[in-house]
Design goal:
The protein has an 8-stranded parallel beta sheet. Strands 1-2 form a two-stranded antiparallel sheet. With 273 residues, it is α/β, with parallel strands linked by helices. α1 links the parallel β3 and β4. It has one domain: NADP-dependent oxidoreductase domain (TIM Barrel), CATH 3.20.20.100. The chain has 10 helices and 10 strands. The chain binds NADP nicotinamide-adenine-dinucleotide phosphate. The site of NADP nicotinamide-adenine-dinucleotide phosphate (NAP) has 28 residues, from α9. Belongs to the aldo/keto reductase family. Keywords: NADP, Oxidoreductase. GO terms for molecular function: oxidoreductase activity, acting on the CH-OH group of donors, NAD or NADP as acceptor.
Amino acid sequence: MPLAPLVSMHDGHRIPQLGYGLYKVPADDAERLALAAVAAGYRHLDTATLYGNEEGVGRAVRRAPVPRDELFVTTKVWNDDHGFDETLRAFDASMGRLGLDVLDLYLIHWPVPSQDRYVDTWRALIRLRDEGRVRSIGVSNFHPHHIERLVDETGVAPVIDQVELHPWLPQHAVRTFDTERGILTEAWSPLARGRVLGDPTLDRLAAKHGRTPAQIVLRWHVQLGNVVIPKASSPERIRENLDVFGFALDADDLGAIAALETGHRTGRDPDLD
Ligand SMILES: NC(=O)c1ccc[n+]([C@@H]2O[C@H](COP(=O)([O-])OP(=O)(O)OC[C@H]3O[C@@H](n4cnc5c(N)ncnc54)[C@H](OP(=O)(O)O)[C@@H]3O)[C@@H](O)[C@H]2O)c1
């Protein structure tokens, strides 16, 4: 069974490079599909308070035939819970739903600059890390200028920035900024919610490598150095999406995928909220 490689974060902890994303996985399906992912070899599960399926993810972690310390669980504080005390309460609520003692990674889901509270939220994450309740802390949907403000005001940089990233939106500026500071870039909607998969370039590369278009895109993420968390709704697709470590794209292939860039976002620009 293939496992995704572990990638080091700047705090010394490691994260499996490919995980299973659970956005829009219904609460009733979360345990079954997360267990299918673990059976397929996934060791990294990405949920959020917003997704409404933390209970199912927690049950899967507790029932998985894999030791807890071999599984990596991420959840996220939602926009309504920004602020120091609010975030500490939201974390307790998430941990109650997950039923876990320690979380691997806690993220601020969106900066929501209009509320101007993300620095206080970040101070709460630092507190939780210092208390040992979460091993690693990071952000999601943060532009470089939001991260610079966190570092300026607290001296603590996130280990990861989880952003929308796929062939239409390769996020050059974010990846360059993150690389320079030792922050990992994690790709959400790595398949552009499945919409990029109909592109003829991907069909051509899939035929060339004897793979599927989804595997071509996920392999591109891996070679870029992204952490990547595809979502799928069937055990077959879940297995297919992890099976990207046995082949490589060449420079021509990478150039052909680079040419797909349009700048199209499937989600919102974080500065507009
Ligand atoms: N931080 C954030 O703000 C944020 C925002 C969005 C997402 N995320 C995270 O990122 C994860 C992934 O993003 P996403 O769920 O938006 O989109 P995605 O992973 O880019 O795409 C999922 C879509 O692609 C389809 N798909 C998956 N594997 C496939 C395959 N092998 N062949 C054909 N189609 C395939 C799925 O279909 P089926 O489901 O029908 O199989 C689903 O419709 C989320 O689950 C969540 O954990 C984070």
